[in-house]
Design goal:
The structure holds two protein chains of two kinds. By secondary structure, chain A is α+β, with helices and mostly antiparallel strands. Chain A has two domains: 2-146, no CATH class; 153-262, no CATH class. Chain A contains ten helices and four strands, in the order ααααααβαααβαββ. In chain A, a hairpin with a 2-residue loop joins β3 (248-254) and β4. The longest helix of chain A is centred in the N-terminal third of the chain and has 30 residues, at 2-31. The model of chain A has no long low-confidence stretch (mean pLDDT 91). By secondary structure, chain B is mainly alpha-helical. Chain B folds into two domains: 8-30 and 67-337, no CATH class; 379-496, no CATH class. Chain B has helices spanning 8-26, 33-47, 71-112, 115-129, 137-140, 142-157, 167-174, 182-199, 206-218, 227-236, 239-244, 256-274, 281-296, 301-320, 323-328, 337-353, 379-387, 403-410, 427-437, 443-449, 463-470, and strands spanning 395-398, 452-458, 475-480, 484-489. In chain B, a hairpin with a 3-residue loop joins β3 and β4 (484-489). In chain B, α3 runs parallel beside α6. The model of chain B is unreliable at 493-498 (pLDDT under 50). The chains are: A alpha+beta, B mainly alpha.
């Protein structure tokens, strides 16, 4: 009896391990930017896919739906589920559908229902181990894929050398790190993350990034004295314009980063 | 059968089909597809041959002859238009929609055996599809898909495979109406796969496989042969379409249709968990495949909604049907033929008043639904262009969303730059168009590149470009209303110099 009890507890614990590891890929996307709960934002969506509602194209979107389907399939097949399981799956799924960045909540909500269903399956340890390994691989891949681009040290030094007047406009993914390195002497836009600036700023930010006709005027209006652009990704068009503009002096241009300071007042 | 007519069964059927009819009959034309379809139909009828290039748009086209798999739909709509104008086009579409839901109701009754729950299921699945029932070639393909569902349901639940042999004939017509004919093939593929998995043997799937093969061959009975299938595949994989056309975008809760899709998934899931009924493998496979397709693209939601009706009715049947109660009090005994007749007559009167010719008299209809065209159609700009020749020596650049209406309203006096037929033009044309209306730093150079001499723009969607044009001395504002503007390139005077 004692041995049997231990066996049951062990299998239940293994099921929890599988469920927790299965939920890890859903935590990965926001692991880099901090966990936040919110609704999708049509303007911020242009900058970050975490601000979009969950879709088939979202990073981890198929995994999120796959886990919910896995729970549903097991519950439907066995005809054995509790109402709280369905409620948790519904709440987590609703949160993820409302905003991709909420998938961490979906992952957390799925752990208990999944664990219960996996425990009921009474799978052999080898299968559970295989599932854990597969989920860890997916979590690792998702974590690496969601990793924001690294701020090159040389680009950082180029910004530090830039003359003081004006603010710094940087790729939003570099803004927080840049602000930390520059200290309080200089102000970096969006250093507090996507929610730290109003919608109008992000509309201008997107216009500049995409090479709007009035990009130079918008930078002047924002009182920008230096820019740190991601020239290989979201701000490719802006980087091209800065390179060819006599109003801007490029002080660093390598890899995916471009630093420029205003050449004329 | 009581013998007294009309019975309550007739009442349920008539009300369900009438509801399906009233929606599209009373809704103004909002999706512009039908407008270029009408133009093409007229051109085909006048010239007695298919188009091999597009005369309605001026933007450069992709190389090679035009593939128009909708030529039969173009002729159908043109025929209605020639007989009774746009009101008859709308009414004809509503009849097609009513036929779709009648076939779907038959399929649902075949699967569930419950008439009233089938009617309820059909009315429920109508909701996510309602915004997608406008007059356009795709709508003409819905009855064909409903016929496929009916054939599969008859084969699954009544062991009657006769209708499967009608499907190749249907496919031969469908493949000349709209590129969505592949959805019928997918449905047959799902049914065949489900049967093979369930029986672990190919033999039970033989009727489906034979029908699938015949349908595949029949789909090549069109002017382009296998080219129609290649066209469908190329449309589905066109990056510009998938990135920029709302209808092809992945389904999310931010779209009304997307929200309806996820609600339908939730309702189905809840019913499956609550019901004692076990879905068949065929049903599970079709739900998974069409569910994935609908999640991938907003456009597929309408097919999903049609497909789930029989499953929904079966699930509702297992939850709500009470055989003991039915035995105690037969349905026929509660029939009130006079009341039934009055309700049926009332439904038919409402349907008659929902028609484009009479709907203005319906007090319950909102003001925005009383016209032939939807509110956001640029009628004023269309009138202005119809009354004025195009400026000499240049092309129009138009707001893409207005292309369909403008070409219908003004061709051949004016030729739009592009419309909603994304596949007509190379990717670079679309990237340039997006750069112009954004506007990017080189929008002026791009207007020169395409020899644009006048612009017809939406004041809201292209607000930044309109603001630029207002202060640009090279452009002159010719027309403006609360929807949009027409700018013409100002003629440079000789004294202005080069």
């Amino acid at each position: 009896m004692v041995v049997g009890g231990r066996g049951v507890r062990g299998k239940r614990a293994a099921a929890y391990v599988v469920a927790i590891v299965a939920a890890l890929p859903l935590l990965a996307p926001e692991a880099w930017s901090g966990f936040r709960l919110g609704l999708a934002d049509p303007v911020l969506s242009a900058m970050s896919n975490l601000e979009q509602p969950l879709s088939v194209r979202s990073p981890g979107g198929i995994w999120a739906v796959g886990l919910a389907l896995a729970w549903f399939g097991l519950a439907y097949w066995r005809r054995d589920f509790k109402l709280w399981e369905a409620a948790l799956v519904f709440l987590g799924g609703g949160a993820a559908l409302a905003r991709m960045g909420n998938t961490w909540l979906d992952g957390a909500a799925l752990v208990l229902p999944l664990a219960r269903q996996v425990a009921l399956l009474k799978l052999p340890p080898i299968v559970l181990s295989g599932a854990v390994a597969a989920c860890l691989v997916v979590a690792g891949i998702t974590l690496v894929q969601a990793r924001p681009p690294e701020l090159p040290t040389a680009a950082l030094q180029a910004v530090q050398r830039a003359p003081l007047p004006g603010k710094v406009l940087a790729d939003w993914r570099w803004a927080a790190e840049l602000q930390r390195q520059l200290g309080s002497d200089r102000s970096v836009f969006a250093s507090g993350g996507l929610t730290s600036e109003p919608t109008d700023f992000w509309l201008d930010y997107a216009r500049i990034a995409q090479g709007h006709e009035h990009w130079a005027y918008l930078l002047r209006r924002l009182d920008v004295g230096a820019v740190l652009l991601n020239s290989g990704d979201q701000q490719q068009k802006a980087a091209e314009l800065v390179r060819s503009s006599p109003d801007w002096r490029v002080t660093y241009d390598a890899g995916d980063a471009l630093v420029a300071e205003r050449a004329s007042p | 059968m009581s013998g007294r007519l009309p019975s309550i069964r007739h009442l349920w059927i008539v009300v369900t089909i009438t509801v399906a009819f009233i929606g599209p009959a009373s809704t103004p034309i909002g999706i512009p597809d039908v407008l270029w379809s009408l133009l093409r139909g007229e051109w085909i009828a006048d010239h007695g041959t298919l188009l091999d290039s597009d005369p309605f748009t001026s933007a450069p086209h992709v190389p090679g002859p035009l593939v128009n798999v909708q030529w039969l739909a173009d002729l159908f709509f043109h025929g209605l238009d020639a007989l009774g104008g746009l009101p008859l086009v709308i009414t004809g579409t509503a009849v097609v929609v009513a036929l779709t839901y009648a076939l779907l109701l038959a399929a649902t009754v075949s699967a569930s055996g419950h008439l009233r729950l089938s009617c309820l299921a059909v009315c429920l699945v109508y909701v996510p599809a309602a915004s997608n029932l406008s007059p356009r070639p795709q709508t003409l393909s819905y009855p064909f898909f409903a016929l496929f569902i009916l054939a599969v349901m008859r084969a699954e639940w009544r062991k009657d495979t006769r209708l499967l042999w009608l499907l190749p004939v249907a496919t031969a017509v469908w493949a000349n109406l709209h590129g969505s004919f592949f959805t019928g093939l997918v449905l047959l593929g799902c049914a065949a796969f489900g049967r093979v998995v369930a029986a672990r043997h190919v033999a039970p799937a033989r009727p489906y496989l034979l029908a699938l093969g015949a349908c595949l061959l029949a789909s090549m009975l069109n002017p382009y042969g296998p080219g129609a299938l290649i066209y469908v595949a190329s449309i589905s994989n066109n990056a510009i379409i998938r990135e920029n056309v709302t209808e092809w975008a992945p389904t999310t809760v931010s779209w009304h249709e997307g929200l309806m899709f996820f609600v339908s998934v939730l309702v189905l899931g809840a019913l499956m968990l609550r019901s004692r009924l076990r879905l068949t493998i065929v049903e599970v496979v079709t739900l998974l495949v069409f569910g994935y397709l609908a999640w991938s693209s907003v456009r597929v939601i309408v097919w999903w909604s049609l497909l789930i009706a029989p499953i929904l009715a079966r699930l509702l049947g297992s939850l709500f049907s009470n055989p003991r109660r039915r035995r105690r009090r037969p349905l026929a005994s509660r029939d009130r033929p006079v009341v039934n007749a009055l309700i049926i007559a009332g439904a038919l009167v409402i349907a008659a008043f929902s028609l484009p010719w009479t709907k203005a008299a319906l007090p319950i209809l909102p003001e925005s639904k009383r016209a032939i065209f939807a509110d956001d159609t640029p009628l004023g700009i269309g009138d202005y262009l119809r009354a004025h020749d195009r400026p000499a020596g240049g092309n129009m650049l138009n707001s893409q969303g207005w292309g369909g209406y403008l070409e219908w309203a003004t061709w051949p006096r004016h030729q739009v730059f592009l419309d909603g037929r994304i596949e007509l033009h190379p990717t670079q044309v679309w990237l340039d168009y997006l750069d112009i209306v954004f506007p990017s730093t080189h929008w002026r150079a791009l207007l020169d590149k395409y020899n644009i001499s006048y612009l017809v723009l939406n004041s809201v969607d292209e607000a930044d470009l309109v603001a630029d044009l207002r202060v640009d001395t090279d452009w002159h504002l010719d027309y403006e209303d609360d929807q949009g503007v027409v700018f013409t390139r100002a003629l440079r005077s000789p004294s202005a110099g080069p």
